Amino acid sequence: MITDPTHKFNEFVDKDKEEEVLYHAFARTYQEVNFMFDDPYFKELMVLVNSNSYLSKIWNEFSSGNLPKVRNIDTRRVYFKYNGIKISMEYSNEPIPNFDRFRLLEHKPTSFIIRILQKFL
């Protein structure tokens, strides 16, 4: 979804931060699936990675052992743009117990003002 330029989600991604977001998202993906060579989803992922020069570059970087060791809050931040306003959000990505293939993804605005407004909406 985050790599598909035709997906509506990408209208809201801050293009100035897109590579940073992809880097951290794919670092996590690499850590979780890099050994699953025969998995059909892994094969589909590799078609995507190999068709995108930036993803291919960072995937090769991760393969050579240059992978972030710790995922702190700075690596779990996404940046959106809505009507010219830049919005950053921290996210959590947690496995759902007994359903390892599924995850709960939660976004929380980093702006104090947005968090206050969110309580009233």
Structural class: alpha+beta
In DSSP terms (H or I, runs of 4 or more residues), the helix count works out at 4
Helical fraction equals 25-40%
Query: Roughly what fraction of the amino acids lie in strands?
Result: 15-25%
Kindly report the average pLDDT value. 78
Count of DSSP strands: 3
Instruction: Report, as a whole number of angstroms, the end-to-end distance.
Output: 27 Å
Low-pLDDT parts are: none
What does the radius of gyration come to? 16 Å
Q: List the domain count as a whole number.
A: 1
Q: Major sheet: size, sense and barrel closure? A: 3 strands, antiparallel
Envelope shape: globular
List the main descriptive attributes of the protein structure presented here:
40% helix; 4 helices; 121 residues; three-stranded antiparallel beta sheet
